Amino acid sequence: MNNGAGRRINGGVEEEDDEDDVNGDLDAWERTYTDERSWESLQEDESGMLRPIDNQALYHSQYRRRLRSLSSTAARIQKGLIRYLYIVIDLSKAASEMDFRPSRIAVIAKHVEAFIREFFYQNPLSQVGIVTIKDGVANCLTDIGGSPESHINALMKKLECSGDSSLQNALDLVDGYLNQIPSYGHREVLILYSALSTCDPGDIMETIQKCRKSKIRCSIIGLAAEMFICKHLCQETGGTYSVALDESHFKELILEHAPPPPAIAEFAVANLIKMGFPQRAAEGSISICSCHKEAKVGAGYTCPRCKARACELPTECSVCGLTLVSSPHLARSYHHLFPIAPFDEVPSSHLNDPIRKQKINCFGCQQNLLDSGNKAGLAVVCPKCKRYFCLDCDIYIHESLHNCPGCDSFRHSKAAPASED
Amino acid sequence: MASAPSKLYADDVSLVVVLLDTNPFFWSSSSLSFSQFLSHVLAFFNAILTLNQLNQVVVIATGYNSCDYIFDSASDLNRSFENGRMPVMSSSLLQKLEEFLIKDEQLSKEEPEGRIKSSLFLGSLSMALCYIQRVFRSGALHPHPRILCLQGSPDGPEQYVAIMNAIFSAQRSEVPIDSCYIGAQNSAFLQQASYITGGVHHKPQNLDGLFQYLMTIFATDLHSRSFIHLPKPVGVDFRASCFCHKNTIDMGYVCSVCLSIFCKHHKKCSTCGSVFGQAQSEAASASDKKRKTPET
């Protein structure tokens, strides 16, 4: 006891010594700024206006890290293009916590809406269903279907939270539904889990094995903290588990599930699916629409098998059940089959080579790469056509365009000559 | 600070990126000569630049072996309105075009006969989209961009997938692609591009009056298009072509792994090599019908 007291006093004395030596008589709030002074990194340009803090290099290195992790294995990984995804939303008491502003469930609802739109944009042939967990019971909110509006409308109406969360009930329900889908589809579940516990009627390990046998790929995004059972579930079924740190991180994590994941070949049997490619009806033709059950004039699509009218594509004909798509819907997924190689970084010494007298421009947007606005050394080069691109074009090309302008602009691809203008 | 610039950038300021077809194989067999075509087109560019002081025109030439930027009205060299001359006439556009054509010819190599002599439309479209992304990044005040394709060459079917990628990217960024097709047949790519992105497609009947078609249809800025009657898309054909025969089909079979389209049942997919489980396909389509629920 005496020793403890002695140590405490000594400790106190040492602390005071430290403070006196280093910080003098600074207040507590001032001490937090001794190491980090964020205002000093601001810069002014010639006219005295503040230049925005250069996050570009940071953003670009994040992007490249992500790209490398995605394409690290093989250049062409088979992806599951026809996906049947269930989104499980935890509406337990924990989802009404306010550590995410305004509340976890509000943030979840907003980003699930954006996710559903993005999902249908990237996977036009896939279908989504929503399941909620409330008071320990899992309920199916919307059946699996291909229309984004119906899911979003149903979700926005039912956002009250109460009770416990039950992972096993949700998995049992989803398993039951996903067993009914055709065998060529990839079965996936995305669970948005806010609770820190699960209240299960039986042995959840059995349910996990059942899901694994049914070949369902479960991924979880946690909003509270990492849980062993979630990690175990994702490892067993081949999904990904991540925990969101804040709202923007959550948005990033959920949108990562929109592009098709790498497919495990045995999970879905390859099949030929019969599909129809309807023609657009002529302007001014009148017919009874099969989805709204009323007469409509003009633009609509005629099913090639039974000649019923449908309002929009892609859809299933409500009379004969034929899947109706148009060729752009299929073409939207072709870039997954022919991905472009990531560009290599160019060392700054190479760009500042004194032999090059002429300006070097980014091949895509003609921006000068040696400008002070775009710091020298931040350029990339395509490994095939050897043309230089700026960072922004690099991100745009790989995330949205999926074509390299350099490779496409030269029929007989030759390496670029030394000078470019 | 904010109010003055917003008066300058009214809704009708536009940036037009023009993709000019310079494919020698097409122009050698066209009824309109290239020099007549250029005279129509240069007058059109000058007209766009006079519609609004802040309008901008960028020209990218689509050659047979290469593509390149030819003209940018926003660059300092081309800004002169001195002596009452129009900026495009007194600029280096014609000179650069000639240099481009010479370079393009030098890049040609021997090719097997029978291939469709299509231009590298894909390359110039990708470059145009990158340039437009740069304009979007330049801040809140920027002209409204659109792309105008002046094409005559036939479509190259090997470019289909990549052109669709570019079209979807343009649709995402809300950039309309207008197209004026001056060749003999129809171009399905241009029709689809204009339809998907919300642009205007037109094939002029009488090429001697090309300038009039350009001025009345393609010169309007995006804001004014809601008040003007423009040619509507008639009969855009979205039917797919089967991968085996290239025929257009309205019902076919799609491989679930790689989404290739076939007109008949096959045992194996020719694109991805997956073997189809035939017993499951009948059961799958039957359960498909049972599982389907009404969408309302």
TrEMBL record, chain A:
Keywords on record: DNA damage, DNA repair, Metal-binding, Nucleus, Transcription, Transcription regulation, Zinc, Zinc-finger
Ranges for domain VWFA: 84-223
Family matches, as InterPro entries: C1-like_sf, Ssl1-like, TFIIH_C1-like_dom, TFIIH_SSL1/p44, VWF_A, vWFA_dom_sf, Znf_C2H2_type, Znf_RING/FYVE/PHD
Primary site of residence: nucleus
Domain of life: Eukaryota
Gene3D superfamilies: von Willebrand factor, type A domain, Zinc/RING finger domain, C3HC4 (zinc finger)
Residue spans of biased composition, Acidic residues class: 13-24
Cell compartments where the protein resides: Nucleus
SUPFAM superfamilies the record matches: Cysteine-rich domain, vWA-like
SMART domains linked to this entry: C1_4 (SM01047), VWA (SM00327)
Chain positions covered by the region annotation Disordered: 1-27
PROSITE patterns, alphabetized: VWFA, ZINC_FINGER_C2H2_1
Acetylation among keywords: no
Family statement: Belongs to the GTF2H2 family.
NCBIfam families in the record: ssl1
Stored PANTHER family: GENERAL TRANSCRIPTION FACTOR IIH SUBUNIT 2 (PTHR12695), GENERAL TRANSCRIPTION FACTOR IIH SUBUNIT 2-RELATED (PTHR12695:SF2)
Protein name: General transcription factor IIH subunit
TrEMBL record, chain B:
Location(s), subcellular: Nucleus
Pfam family, one: Tfb4
Protein name: General transcription and DNA repair factor IIH subunit TFB4
Assembly and oligomerization: Component of the 7-subunit TFIIH core complex composed of XPB, XPD, TFB1/GTF2H1, GTF2H2/P44, TFB4/GTF2H3, TFB2/GTF2H4 and TFB5/GTF2H5, which is active in NER. The core complex associates with the 3-subunit CDK-activating kinase (CAK) module composed of CYCH1/cyclin H1, CDKD and MAT1/At4g30820 to form the 10-subunit holoenzyme (holo-TFIIH) active in transcription.
PANTHER family, A to Z: GENERAL TRANSCRIPTION FACTOR IIH SUBUNIT 3, TRANSCRIPTION INITIATION FACTOR IIH TFIIH , POLYPEPTIDE 3-RELATED
Record keywords: DNA damage, DNA repair, Metal-binding, Nucleus, Transcription, Transcription regulation, Zinc, Zinc-finger
The keyword Zinc-finger is assigned to this record: yes
Main location: nucleus
Membrane-crossing residue ranges in chain numbering: none
Membership in a protein family: Belongs to the TFB4 family.
Family matches, as InterPro entries: TFIIH_Tfb4/GTF2H3 (IPR004600), vWFA_dom_sf (IPR036465)
Biological function: Component of the general transcription and DNA repair factor IIH (TFIIH) core complex, which is involved in general and transcription-coupled nucleotide excision repair (NER) of damaged DNA and, when complexed to CAK, in RNA transcription by RNA polymerase II. In NER, TFIIH acts by opening DNA around the lesion to allow the excision of the damaged oligonucleotide and its replacement by a new DNA fragment. In transcription, TFIIH has an essential role in transcription initiation.
